[in-house]
Amino acid sequence: MIDITTFYHLESYRIFYHTAQIGNFTKAAETLHITQPSVSYAIKQLESALGLKLFHRQSKGVALTEEGKALFHYVEQSFAILEAGEDKLRAIKRLEAGELRIGASDSMFKHLLKPHLHTFMSRHPHVHLRLSHGKTSDIERRLQEGQIDCGLVHLPVDEERLDVHPLVHVQPVFVAGESYRRLAEGGPLTAAALREHPLLLLSSGSSSRIGIDQWFAAQGVTVDADIELGSVGLIIEFAQLGFGIACAAREFVRQELREGSLFELPTAMSIPSRTIALATLRGLPPSLTAAEFVSMLSASFTRPAGVGEAE
């Protein structure tokens, strides 16, 4: 923290810096828009504080002493650094610099954020983008630790320190490859009927996995994944290869369903939809860069809608 004494020292150094450059108290005062006695007083106070003479007084101005030259070398560098800092802040204000840190799952980056990130970076190509993937609990922790500016999470989020803005609803469905076509074309499947086949699910502890475990439990079925992976993309690939039945958001497998590499398996009991929200740390103003992205993303999702509508 800078106290009032330090402030006066900084002002004295500013006066010293300009006086040394100009070599005249009166002209330095004109440049600084202060009086000539104020310049003389500031230099006198600085010399008194340092116990050294900084200027030789001459008939037409002043010149630095050897000690003054030594001090000016460091003062000049300091003001150059301050000026560079101000230039950097002006660039950040214009979004010509700065950093944007976002956390989300791989599937959210691919199916939700990618087009918006492309738009943002096209507008602000000098912003440094940092992306980190993880499940909802990871994103919550990183927000609280200040590692990211914002993140996409599955609701509900039981965390008072976060502000959440719902963006989009997604519908979990069961899908499988060609070898399960007949099963997909049959009638609705119960949880027990699904459990008779190999299941490809996300890792335990993820909010998506917790939701599907609860769906099975509501029908009296305890489920253990035959293949448990941390990436929706990998689960989809394994399902396409015929390794079993996968659970994924319908919005994240639209292309595969359209192409026929995956088939949706209807269920007798509906699976609750899930809400994806934008989360930020409550009470902490975001950086200008993050605020601009959050505003742009929120405006893109004017109401909870399907991912296809958002894209």
Please provide a written account of the structure.
With 311 residues, the protein is an alpha/beta fold. It has three domains: 90 residues, Winged helix-like DNA-binding domain superfamily/Winged helix DNA-binding domain (Arc Repressor Mutant, subunit A, Orthogonal Bundle), CATH 1.10.10.10; 107 residues, 3-Layer(aba) Sandwich (D-Maltodextrin-Binding Protein, domain 2); 101 residues, Periplasmic binding protein-like II (D-Maltodextrin-Binding Protein, domain 2), CATH 3.40.190. It has a five-stranded mixed β-sheet, sandwiched between helices. Helix 2 packs across helix 3. The radius of gyration is 31 Å and the shape is rod-shaped. It starts with a helix and ends with a helix.
How are the secondary structure elements laid out?
Elements: H1 4-22, H2 25-32, H3 36-50, E1 55-58, E2 61-64, H4 66-93, E3 99-104, H5 106-123, E4 128-133, H6 136-144, E5 150-154, E6 162-170, E7 172-176, H7 181-185, H8 191-195, E8 199-202, H9 207-217, E9 227-229, H10 232-240, E10 245-249, H11 254-259, E11 263-265, E12 274-281, H12 288-300, H13 307-310
Parallel strand pairs: 3-4, 3-5, 8-9, 8-10
Antiparallel strand pairs: 1-2, 5-12, 6-12, 7-10, 7-11
